[in-house]
UniProtKB/TrEMBL annotation:
Lineage, broadest ranks: Bacteria, Pseudomonadati, Pseudomonadota, Alphaproteobacteria, Rhodobacterales
Annotated GO biological process: translation
Organism of derivation: Antarctobacter heliothermus
Top-rank taxon: Bacteria
Family per record: Belongs to the bacterial ribosomal protein bS1 family.
CDD domains, sorted: S1_RPS1_repeat_ec2_hs2 (cd04465), S1_RPS1_repeat_ec3 (cd05688)
Keyword annotations: Repeat, Ribonucleoprotein, Ribosomal protein, RNA-binding
Job of this protein: Binds mRNA; thus facilitating recognition of the initiation point. It is needed to translate mRNA with a short Shine-Dalgarno (SD) purine-rich sequence.
Ranges where the S1 motif domain occurs: 25-91, 109-175, 196-264, 281-351, 368-438, 455-523
One GO MF term attached to the UniProt entry: mRNA binding
A GO term from the CC aspect: cytosolic small ribosomal subunit
Protein name: 30S ribosomal protein S1
Length: 558
């Protein structure tokens, strides 16, 4: 054979080899020539055959779909193995084919079809027609899914969120598809709704603050404050899941597609009649619904609540928590004090339904009435005595004793002592009752001094002899006569010439209501008597001596 022909043959051979021999690591077309022992034998050309397990032709959860004579694409991993066969894979071919298709879909932001076939940590695996993707648990549905069983193996659309061919990572979402279709559905439903419409809905979910109601493809929020005119502590008091309710569309937010619903708006507003039903100063029965630091809320009827401020709860308990005066669910009588229709507020009073205890006390205890009570408190300015009607009266230091200083007298009292006193003054407005302990037996000084004037002569009894004078008593009142007042005669100014129990006539020289003392003097009496005798019996020309005059005066007295 000529050398030229040899060269041509070699060139042709090389050309044919280049054209027909597929590259390892590429996807090639082949033909199924036989099926045996769970494998398909595939001719990939250039007298190359390979085997592929039938399961590689099956979609997840389905039977293999392959027949003799079918043309299929396979991935050529190696042109020849130990047995002289091509090493091929249908699965890898599908993967390569799928990646090309998926990358295009990702670039076009198009949906792809797939089926969930396995569960992995944090989510699921999805077969996207040859390529395996990860579906995070949060992307399965709009709301958390408790059981994903019914979704397994179902062909359904997914959205690709992320792709990395080099690492072989694909992340998909089913939720994005649902939200898109929900958004379309919402837009359609919302387009038909108008604010003010009444519509039937089904309660889907209940939370602390309200309930979500399905209006036929779109949810609306029914807030707890819009369920009823009365106070609702928890939505479950009124609603249950699955229940059909009639609601009114209060507000539609066109941008966020949020719908606010109300139930109470379909009922009559009890506030329309509050002014008529609850006139000022009228008294009504109510139920305590809530207690706070500043007062208690009382329900007059469903939907109409009023506040009894802590200052209007009790006449006597001033700095007490409202919970110590009333309890939740208690029935109470209250008076309407104020109504503010605009703010939907009623001010109520609890103490106004009871009489002011200071008024009652003033009526039943006029001045000088004797009372008895327990010493509740002792302060630097007096005693506080507990009186009937849970009120206190005060005995000022100055009203404790006639004889002792207040600071001394108060030392004799202890908390819890039962004492008697008389009412000296009641000030209803200032809620103040003044009492006196020293006035219990009346004012002995005033009684004794009544009728006694300066210059009067009174008889006293000697009660004690001292160096500086004598102590005497007149009508229960003690007085002291100094040595210099015992006689006009200096020689007779001796206290020892008197004895305890002696009766002595004295002249009143002073009446001191402040110190509650009488000023008494024997000397002043003697001087006065002498003066009187001279006036009556003596004359300048008679020549009578003082002895004669006093003798005549004394004789007359006898």
């Amino acid at each position: 054979m000529p050398s030229a022909s040899m060269e041509e043959f070699e060139a042709l051979l090389n050309e044919s080899l280049e054209m027909d021999t597929p590259d390892e690591g590429s996807v090639v077309k082949g033909k199924v020539i036989a099926i045996e022992a769970g494998q398909a034998i595939i001719d990939v050309g250039y007298k190359m055959e390979g085997r592929v397990d039938l399961k590689e032709f099956a979609e997840p959860g389905e039977n293999p779909d392959v027949q003799v004579g079918a043309e299929v694409e396979v991935y050529l991993r190696s042109a020849e193995n130990a047995r002289g066969e091509a090493v091929i894979s249908r699965e890898m071919a599908r993967r390569e084919e799928a990646w090309d298709r998926l990358e295009k879909a990702y670039a076009d932001d198009a949906r792809v079809e797939g089926a969930i076939f396995g569960r992995v940590k944090g989510g699921f695996t999805v077969d996207l027609g040859g390529a395996v993707a990860f579906l995070p648990g949060s992307q399965v549905d709009v709301r958390p899914v408790r059981d994903a069983g019914p979704l397994m193996g179902l062909k359904q659309p997914f959205q690709i969120l992320k792709m990395d061919r080099r690492r072989g990572n694909i992340v998909v979402s089913r939720r994005a598809i649902l939200e898109e279709s929900r958004a379309e559905q919402r837009a359609e439903v919302i387009g038909k709704l108008q604010e003010g419409d009444s519509i039937d809905g089904v309660v889907k979910n209940i939370t602390e603050y309200g309930a979500f109601v399905d209006l036929g493809g779109v949810d609306g929020l029914l807030h707890v404050t819009d369920m009823a005119w009365r106070r609702v502590n928890h939505p479950s008091e009124i609603l249950s899941i699955g229940e059909t309710v009639k609601v009114q569309v209060i507000k539609i937010n066109k941008e966020t597609h949020r719908i606010s619903l109300g139930m109470k708006q379909l009922q009559e507003d009890p506030w329309d009649l509050v002014g008529v039903k609850y006139p000022l100063a009228s008294v009504h029965k109510g139920r305590v619904t809530n207690i706070t630091d500043y007062g208690a809320f009382v329900e007059l009827e469903p939907g109409v609540e009023g506040l009894v401020h802590v200052s209007e709860m009790s006449w006597t308990k001033k700095n007490v928590h409202p919970g110590k005066i009333v309890s939740t669910s208690q029935e109470v009588d209250v008076m309407v004090l104020e109504i503010d229709g605009a703010k939907r507020r009623v001010s109520l009073g609890l103490k106004q339904t009871m009489r002011n205890p200071w008024e009652v006390f003033a009526e039943t205890h006029p001045e000088n009435t004797q009372v008895e009570g327990e010493v509740k408190n002792i302060t630097e300015f007096g005693l506080f005595i507990g009186l009937e009607g849970e009120i206190d009266g005060m005995v000022h230091l100055s009203d404790l004793s006639w004889d002792q200083r207040g600071e001394e007298a108060i030392q004799e009292y202890r908390k819890g002592d039962i004492v008697q006193a008389v009412v000296s003054e009641v000030d209803v407005e200032k809620e103040r009752i003044s009492l006196s302990i020293k006035a219990l037996g009346g004012d002995k000084f005033a009684e004794a001094a009544d009728g006694v004037r300066r210059g009067s002569i009174v008889t006293v009894e000697v009660t004690a002899i001292e160096d500086g004078g004598i102590e005497v008593e007149y009508e229960g009142m003690k007085s002291f006569i100094r040595r210099s007042d015992l006689s006009r005669d200096r020689a007779e100014q001796r206290p020892e010439r008197f004895s305890t129990g002696d009766k002595v006539d004295v002249r009143v020289t002073n009446i001191d209501t402040k110190t509650r003392r009488l000023g008494l003097s024997i000397k002043a009496r003697e001087i006065a008597e002498e003066k009187e005798a001279v006036e009556q019996f003596g004359s300048s020309d008679s020549g009578a001596s003082l002895g004669d005059i006093l003798g005549a005066a004394l004789k007359r007295d006898e």
